[in-house]
Amino acid sequence: MNRNESKTDDAAATMQDQNLREGHQMWQLPPSCQAAASRVVSGNVAEAHRYVWNSRRWLSAAVVATTAAAWLVIMSWSKLDQPEPTLQSSVVQRVPVEHSTQDEAVFDYHIPESVLGVEGHFAVGMRSPHPNIEVVRLLPLISDASKTVAAGRPRYIPPTE
Amino acid sequence: MSDGESLDEADLIAGATSVYRFLRRWSGDPEWAEDMTQETIVKAWQSRGALMHRDRATAWMLTIARRLAIDDSRRRGDRLQLQHDSMDCVCAAVPPPQHDEEIRDEVRRAMTAMDRLPPRQRAVMYLTAVEDLTPREIAEIMDLPAAVVRSNLFVARARMRSMLSNEASPRS
Lengths: 161, 172
What we know:
Structural class of chain B: mainly alpha
Helix content of chain A: 40-55%
Low-confidence stretches of chain B: 81-92
Distance between the termini of chain A: 90 Å
Strand order of the largest sheet of chain A: 1-2-3-5
Number of helices of chain A: 4
Structural class of chain A: alpha+beta
Mean pLDDT of chain A: 55
Largest sheet of chain B: none
Order of helices and strands of chain B: HHHHHHHH
Distance between the termini of chain B: 57 Å
Number of strands of chain A: 6
Largest interface: A-B, 34 and 46 residues
Shape of chain B: globular
Number of strands of chain B: 0
Shape of chain A: elongated
Oligomer: heterodimer
Order of helices and strands of chain A: HHHEEHEEEE
Radius of gyration of chain A: 31 Å
Largest sheet of chain A: 4 strands, antiparallel
Helix content of chain B: 55-70%
Low-confidence stretches of chain A: 80-105, 125-161
Strand content of chain A: 15-25%
Strand content of chain B: under 5%
């Protein structure tokens, strides 16, 4: 390699380095890490350790807890309001089916022709960690499966006994 | 003589910034990099007495980070290595819009070329170019002989040059 080639390579390397440096400047230190640095310098290391290491986990736990709380609130409201199923209960008769189990309750909906354009019965399976919370799954028991009622939101189902 | 006791918050933050970027580049996982950076900060502070020269705090913290990262990946049962497919990282790291489009394009191409390097070469290239560390410092961080670092850097530069020139040729 002659001297000119060497200079060219050096210049290219310098340019590469500059570009790579510039490309990484966007990655700033996250606030949690800055907080970690402040805490270990100013205070109890053990406390800081617990704080910084657990901060995001606490945040995750808080998100889960908040979601769960929101879910319970929604369920409480649902219990109070006894919301109607996706299909209006005035036109749908819901009858528990014999083969309901602890994990999955199956209800039989009688659906008049005025609702779907075809009359028939639909079995609706509900699987949930809570027996009174319905996660909708519709199983058409009539021949015209294309008329299946759209699955709706989770909703409260009164005890079936 | 150790002057680790004089390590201050600014040193920690400067070192942690390098650690975070390195781990993020290494793993492609920002959350994991954040966790490991926090661990590194705590560990560095606890063992600051072992720091011989304050002006080498960044390299020292990178060494700690690498060890913690390897331990953590062993605990999790996966093998830590630089991501081969880290285009998301590349895009996230491209300079902001106020930069000239041509510069942004050059940066993007350089980052993409670096991402195509084998893991060790990529790490050496990264630590040289971005963190401005010497082969000796990188050797300590990577737990490699300095000669291996130099040869990896040489090959990495040649490969990047080749990739970038091949990429540029069809355009011209």
